[in-house]
Amino acid sequence: MAASGRAAEVARELVRRRADLIRHERGSLESHLVGVHDILTRWKQPERVQLAGLLHSGYSTEAFAFRLFGKRDRPRMRELIGEASERLTFAFGAIRREELLRAAEEADDVATHLHLQARWGDDAQAVSRVELSELLVIHAANLAEQSCGARGEPVEWIARARRFLSAAQRNAEVLPAWFAQREGDEPFDGGAETRLLQAYEARLRGPASTVEQASSVGQSLVGEPLVLAGLVALAEGRGPDAASLGARACVAFEALGVSWDKRLRIDRWEELAQVLMRDGRLCDRELEVASERARASLDRADGSPERIWAHFDACEAWPEAPSEDPFVAGAPPPPSTDKGTLPPRFARYIGALATNTERPIPEFYPGLRTSPWYDPREFAITRDLETHAAEIASEMRAFEVEYFQDEAEDIGRTGRWGVLFLLEMGRRNEEALALCPVTASIIQRHRTITTRGGLMYFSCLDPRTRIAPHQGPTNQRLRCHLGLEIPDQCGVRVGGVVRSWEEGRCIVFDDSFWHEVWNNSDRRRVVLILDLWHPDLSDDEVALLAGLHRYGIANRMTTARALSRNDAAQRKARREGESVRRDASGVRAGTKERT
Question: Rounded to an integer, what distance in angstroms lies between the CA atom of residue 539 and that of residue 335?
């Protein structure tokens, strides 16, 4: 089986074993495994190493106790990824990392195989010198994928990863390009990494006018300080310097293959680097405009790379999409020439079901504008809501406090966050809607999402409550808030940009961006929340997506009923079987007593 075929089959196996539901660091076990595989692929590792990385912690590790599969599953794992890859996977779980390092750093050149103690007390595991090096490369990729602070900010890990790769270099088939020491580079150790982190955070939080260029320490390894220095150069009108720094950042991102500062995905860091390369080559008035944009992004950053990226995104400052791509964000969908033909964007979206083993529900729709905030005046519903805001507030206050339940979603918070659903993922709260006729009529008149993809509810933040950063699942919707009771000292940050509410006024934002909410006052904060279809979606696309949502709900309910019936039949069969066995046991016992 080809490498791509094996990886696809492993992805399907991960879905079957529900690896997407198992927590691992900041995401799921599935996303971590796929992330390590992607890094090993970018590092141009042999196929056996890439596949081993895709299941590297499946047998559990010293730091991650969950077993996705056990020893008796080894034949199935060999079938999935091949014997060589499965040996690496098993050894990764069995042998402690420090034991591998010790063996690699102390071993002589005579022995072809080393026997290392397994952490779960089995006989020693035999690994070849090549396997030992490949295990250390996987450890380096594992470290690279998950090392960051609670918000994704960079932490020290590169020096440790270099130790793994240094121990691996004698026998590894391929070492990552970034590991090679370049002429003129300063030695990179833990102290150098600490200085790089301190300098990077100081520059990120300092005003643009005081930020100096990236130091030479580590700049050949990580691209993020180069991007920041390039933005400063662009803000100061030094176009050639900005373009050069952007180009060097692109090289660093390509080599490292993973974000060092994980507050932004690597593709978004690369977008910023590409902007520097383009804008740094501009002249005269165009360069002045680009400089002003870079200056504004740095002045408003407040230590947040997300905010820098969001500013450029809100300005639609990215390099133009390739001309052959028909799905330009914000453009109207191409007209269909045949009534029976699906809209092209929907066809592309639904086509993702052919490769949806990693994410069964394709959540992001192609060709839609991406911006954290939208002008409420673009939406007819906001005028309707604001006109009737007093009546809506009166309807909300008619509910007793006990009607508000604690928000059940697994989102961190301090204080109490209460919600009262009018419509929840296609399910109507008829009792609540009957008590809110004005609100209900507005929902029905506009392009609100009343299917599985949408929510409509009153949201109440008690005093001194803060909701941790989180993000919605899809770009198909925008979220509209109508302020009903708004004290001072409360606000919302979306994509790094902070705004607040006003009583009787609406705000609209894309909740697929990271966002957080707080109420630092002594009064409650109450808003009405409605989900709207993205304005770039045509009516045909909305109808098709709504139909897809209805199908999903109906299919889930049908499946649940069928499974419930089968479970009941199975329980009945077991009860009857136990009854027969008890009767038979009683007959045998009676016969023995008579004998």
Answer: 12
Same domain, 215 and 279: yes
In a domain? residue 210: yes
Looking at the structure, tell me whether residues 264 and 407 fall in a common domain.
Answer: no
What interhelical angle do 74-81 and 47-54 show, nearest 10? 140
Tens of pLDDT, residue by residue over 474-494, are 889 999 999 999 999 999 998
Q: Between these two residues, 372 and 185, which has the higher pLDDT value?
A: 372
Residues 161 and 89 in one domain: yes
The total number of structural domains in the chain stands at 3
Enter the tokens of residue 50. 């890439």
Q: Which two tokens stand for residue 428?
A: 């109507």
Assigned domain for 192 exists: no
pLDDT of residue 119: 76
Residues 155 and 212 in one domain: no
What six digits make up the tokens of 154? 């960079």
Residues 169 and 48 in one domain: yes
The residue that leads in pLDDT, 441 or 1, is 441
> Nearest 5 degrees, angle CA 145-CA 150-CA 153?
65
> Which of 535, 555, 572 is the C-terminal boundary of a domain?
535
Q: Is residue 190 part of a domain?
A: no
The predicted structure's pLDDT at residue 360: 65
* In the block, residue with structure tokens 């450029």: 312
Same domain, 387 and 310: no
Task: Flag the least confident range among 154-158, 191-195, 432-436.
Answer: 191-195
- State the pLDDT confidence band at 587, using cuts at 50, 70 and 90: low
Domain with 97, as residue range(s), is 3-179
| 158, 217: one domain | no
pLDDT recorded at residue 553: 66
pLDDT tens digits for range 334-392: 555 445 578 888 888 888 777 665 556 666 788 888 788 999 988 999 999 999 999 99
**Which residue, 345, 315, 323, is CA-closest to 333?**
345
Could you tell me if residue 279 is inside a domain? yes
Are 100 and 136 spatial neighbours (Cβ–Cβ below 8 Å)? yes
Q: What's the first-to-final CA gap in the chain, in angstroms?
A: 65
Helix-helix angle 190-205:158-168, to 10 degrees: 150
What are the pLDDT digits (tens) for 408-420?
Answer: 888 999 999 999 9
Nearest to 381 by CA among 456, 458, 443, 452: 443
Which conformational region is residue 81 in: left (phi greater than 0), alpha (psi within -120 to 50 degrees), or beta? Answer: alpha
From the number of C-beta atoms within 10 Å of its C-beta (0-12, 13-18, 19+), residue 458 rates as buried
The pLDDT of residue 213 is 40
Q: Are residues 382 and 260 in the same domain?
A: no
Separation of alpha carbons 306 and 276, rounded Å: 17
pLDDT for 356 equals 61
Integer Cα distance of 32 and 4 in angstroms: 18
